[in-house]
Structures are given as C-alpha cells and as structure tokens.
Amino acid sequence: MRSPWRMLTSRGRAFLVLGLVTAAAGVLLGYEDITRIGVLLTALPVLALLLMPRRSPRIQVRREADPARLVPDERGAVETHFTNVGRRRTPVYLAEEHLDYHLGDRPRFVLPRLDPGEQRRLRYTVRSRHRGAYTLGPVVLRQRDPFGLTFLTLQLSSRSEVLVLPRTHHLGEGRVRGTSRGSEGEMPQMVALHGEDDVSIRNYRDGDELRRVHWPATAHRGELMVRQEDRPARRRAVLLLDSRDRAHPGGGVRASYEWGVSAIASVARHLQLQGFVIHLLTDSTVREGSADHPVELDQALTILARATPEANTRLARLAAVAAPFAAGGVLVVAAVVAHDEEDLRALASIRQPGSRALAFVLDPSRFGGTPRSDGRATRPSGAAGALAQAGWRTVECGPHTEIPQAWAALGESAQVGRSA
C-alpha cells in the first residue's frame, strides 16, 4: 500500500501544506478565523484520504482476441471482460490497458461501478506492422476524489497475448525438383494400374479381405492379387534460420533478421503445399530438443513469430543438428548472414552427395551497415563461394530483394552466387 503522502495529488499536497501553515499562522497571530480556514484546508485532503478505499477491488479480467493470430498490418479486435467477483460494489475507475507500443495506442476508458457478479465489456482494436508475440495487460485502474486531492493507482495483473505471424509470400506454382534419394532412403516405386494412383498390387495372403482383391490383376496373372494402398514416402526438408545476434546489423527490429524469418516462413508454406515433411531449425527448437520432430505449417509459423536474435550462439551448432538430416538426402534451405567464415564452412559441410542445399545469403552491408564485427566478417561473395564449393546453390539478398524472385533464382539459375 502506498504511503498517504504519495496518494495525494499536487493539489492535495498544496492544500495540506497551505492549511497547516495557515492554521499555525492563525494560532501565532491570534486570529481565530484564519485558524479555522487553515483547519478546513487541512481537513479536506485528510478526509479524502480517509474515504479513499484501501482494499484492491476483486475484478476478474478475461480477454478474447479475434482473430487469435494476426498477420502484419491486419487489424484485430480484443474484447476485454471485467467481472466483479467480490462481495462489494466497486467504485468508478479510470482504466488503461497496457499494450506493447507496436500494437498501437493504449486504450483508456471509464470503468463504471460494478455490483457483485456484474460484468462489463470493452472492445478495442490492435494492429502491428511487425511479427512477434505481444503482451496485452496488465490493466491499470486510477481513482480520484471529486476535488482532485487524492490519487490511487491499482493494477489488475491478468495478462494475455496476441501473436503476429511472419509475413509470407507466394513462391509460385513450380514444384521443387526432387533429389536422387528420398527422405528415408530410396523412394518406393508404386505400381498404379488402370489409373489408380498410389496403389500397389501384391499376392493374396491369408486374412486379407476379399473386397481388396484386384480382379484385373488376378485375371492377368492367374492368381489372387490384392490392393495394397500405401502412399509413397514423403520428401523431407530442413529449414535453417541464422539467429546469431552479432551477425545481424542494427538494433530493435532488424531488417536482415525479419527478411530471413519471412523467407523461411514462405518456403515452409510453399514446401508443405507440395507435400514435404518440414523440420525447422532455430536456436529455440534446438535448445528445446524439438528440431528432430516434423512441424506443421501453423506450428512453424508460431515458432518463427516468436523467434529473436540470440547472443552466444553459433551457426556451427545448428549445422551439427542439421547434418544427420542432410545425410538422408533431404532438401536443406537456409537463410544465413555473410558473417564469420568458419561458421559458414561448418554449414557448407553438411550437404551430402545426392541432396540439394539452397541458401539465401544476406548481405549485412545492404541492411543498414556492417554487423557488430568481431574481426571475422565475411563478404557476401566469399560466403556464397564457401557454400558453392560444397555444392550449395545460393542467392545474395538485400533489403529490396523480393523473396519470390530470390527463390526463383535458387530454383532456376545454375550459376551460384547470383544476385537478385
């Protein structure tokens, strides 16, 4: 609980000091009327303090965001429910919802008196230009007496979250060319008869259902044949995001990092539509041990929405986690900054014969300056060269490089290190 002096406004403190001085002067000078005025001035802020409620109101706060997840520049509506769960009627408060500054101005409103069990609703809009996880709350309640002599601030600790997903781009309709091996070794060869896709035929075994008998194949071979409706093995892709704090120039919202996140999110969407199984490698997935598990698109976008540059991390660590995947012939796609040649060579080495590896090479000098260099900064052409020597296909990217164009350059150009 705040001290009484801190609960007084500037006006209240002036009344109290002026009242005490006036009362003291009236006593010393022998003027009773002046003394009465001083006592009255002193009594007003004291009485306001005594009438100020000392107990925090028991108000429950619940928020509903529509939609629950936004995309950059999309407006979302947040409906906040205030419920008096106490046994006493609440006073009138001036309320303010605390928001991250990226979401817009903080809404301010008058919260009227609430009887026990009564509920009020507040609706406001939020919008962010940047992806991320943003906190809603807490709600701060302020109360003044009618004369403006006292000021009380209370906080309702309830918090919620709004998730703004990364911006994704359409990467075209072209299919990604497969590798010589599948995700788990060789892709199984399926026999399709009479237009029945993904259906193989095998000999009848005891216990097989008669409805699965394939009569044309039975007549052709002279023995019972049944359908085996197995799907071909799905191709896998490993998406790697360079989150080295020292590699991305600038502070706050870093253009190079946001470009990389958007590129990886766009590739994830594109590959999943083509039937790929996706593994997402970031510092958070490696730290949590979830990099080994495939992710759906919604989960990948959620992880990327929360991703931030991290200090004391090395690209070699992500490369070590990605190496076992690359040995199986998967498609590797990386968004990497041209910084620290040793880390880049560690990443380049994960590509194995029979697999494809593609890289968006971000030029830090084009994203607002050089990174916070420790003396090991690498030129984009050198980074592309180090990756190209290991069989990677690369494209150099800057802040004005369109992600669909960069992806097209990776898929169509046979020349490594091509600038978009």
TrEMBL record:
Domain DUF58 span(s) in chain numbering: 201-284
Keyword terms: Membrane, Transmembrane, Transmembrane helix
Transmembrane segments: 12-31, 37-53, 315-338
Protein name per UniProt: DUF58 domain-containing protein
The organism's place on the tree of life at top rank: Bacteria
Keyword Lipid metabolism: no
Pfam families per UniProt: DUF58
Keyword hit for Lipid biosynthesis: no
Species: Ornithinimicrobium pratense
